[in-house]
Amino acid sequence: MKKRVALLFLIVLVVIAMTAIGCKKEEAPASTSGAVEAAPVAKKVDSPKIGFIGPMTGDYANYGVLSNNSAMLAIEQFNAKGGIGGSIPVTLVTEDSEGNVEKGLSSIEKLSSSDKIVGLIGPVFTGVSFAVGERVQNEGLVMISPSATHADITAIGDFVFRTVVSDGLQGEVAGRYFFEKLGYKTIGVLYAKNDYSQGLYEGMTASFEAAGGKVTIAEAFNVGDKDFKTQLTKIRTASPEAIYIPNYTAEMAQILEQASQLGMDIPFLSCDGFSNPEIYNLAGDFTDGVIYVGPAKVKESPAFSTFVSQYTTKYGVGPDSFATNAYDGTNILLAAMDKVYKATGKFDRKAIRDAVAVTKDFPGVSGVVNFAENGDLVAYQGLYKVNKTTPEYLGTYTVVDGKLVQID
């Protein structure tokens, strides 16, 4: 009898234990195969990366540094507001091209393959932009240049955009303005053997001669040259009414100084490269009287004033026009990334490109930004005259059906 009671007691204990174990499993299942699944753990999304390519060192570093500053500022401000979807920060990866095509290609190789960027701001220079543009087009990676002005840049393909006016329009406005408003019938040109300078020379020449003028002499120099007296002497001998110098800042400063040393008393005309304030540090009073075509003057607005103040406070120097373009381009790219992620939960390169392409009336600090179907910026050009190292605004112009039109 005692054995039976003991056995019965043991059975009861086993049943109780099994019941307790069963209850415990229901409360906290050990695997996802049970009837009740554990709450999914949110997957951590890696910070998406934007690339920047520009000259950060060398003779042309000023162009790259100013624009890179803008990209950094835009991303810093975007992240401060929460980033993508309000919670994912964006990272900027900067590569120094030194203004060199080979360096630019190695930069995009690293950015695209190793860093796996989803969009690119830059390159800054036209020649590098041609090479890098071919690469991003083949890879399906959107690129927004703040300063590559050659007319054919956006012809590379539908992944290439710019927030700067095309040389096509700049050259047209320059040629027509020089002939119709300044009254010049003959012009000499001193240009560099690079895509940027040669593109502006060709565009201005076509427009100027279509209006009735004549480019009587055009002298070229190699990139990196420091002495331009031989070319300047030849141009002086040809006796044009003015000299057009569509070049980068360092070159133009040397050209103006050497022309003064030669005693040349002739008007100089220039391009958007003159809108970089570094020209006044390099050339000083030699810039006096230069008339140049550049970005249309940004109408004073709270957004623009705030940007200039924030930029200057952070970096100790004001932005040039290309830096302003870089700020707008970066914000357009960030908005596209945010839009795509909210809709899909991904950072698909093609989808980001498509979101950039449909940008309409974007409230940029440079003004309202729209892209034409080919990726060009829909914009106008400004004319300036330097008075004692201060550029004075002469007006906003465009060309419609071969005719110069003043906007304001």
Please work out how many helical segments DSSP would assign.
12
What name goes with the CATH superfamily of the largest domain?
Response regulator
Q: What's the CATH class label of the largest domain? A: Alpha Beta
Give me the count of strands: 15
- Percent helix among the residues? 40-55%
Sheet with most strands: strand arrangement: 7-6-8-9-10-13-14-15
Order of helices and strands: HEHEHEHEEHEHEHEHEHEHHHEEEEE
Largest sheet: 8 strands, mixed
Shape descriptor reads globular
* Class inferred from helices and paired strands: alpha/beta
Taken as a percent bin, the fraction of beta residues is 15-25%
Tally of structural domains:
2
Query: Which fold name fills CATH's third level, the topology of the largest domain?
Result: Rossmann fold
What is the radius of gyration? 30 Å
Q: Terminal Cα separation, in Å?
A: 115 Å
Q: Give the mean pLDDT.
A: 90
Please state the second-level CATH architecture of the largest domain.
Answer: 3-Layer(aba) Sandwich
Unreliable residue runs: 1-42
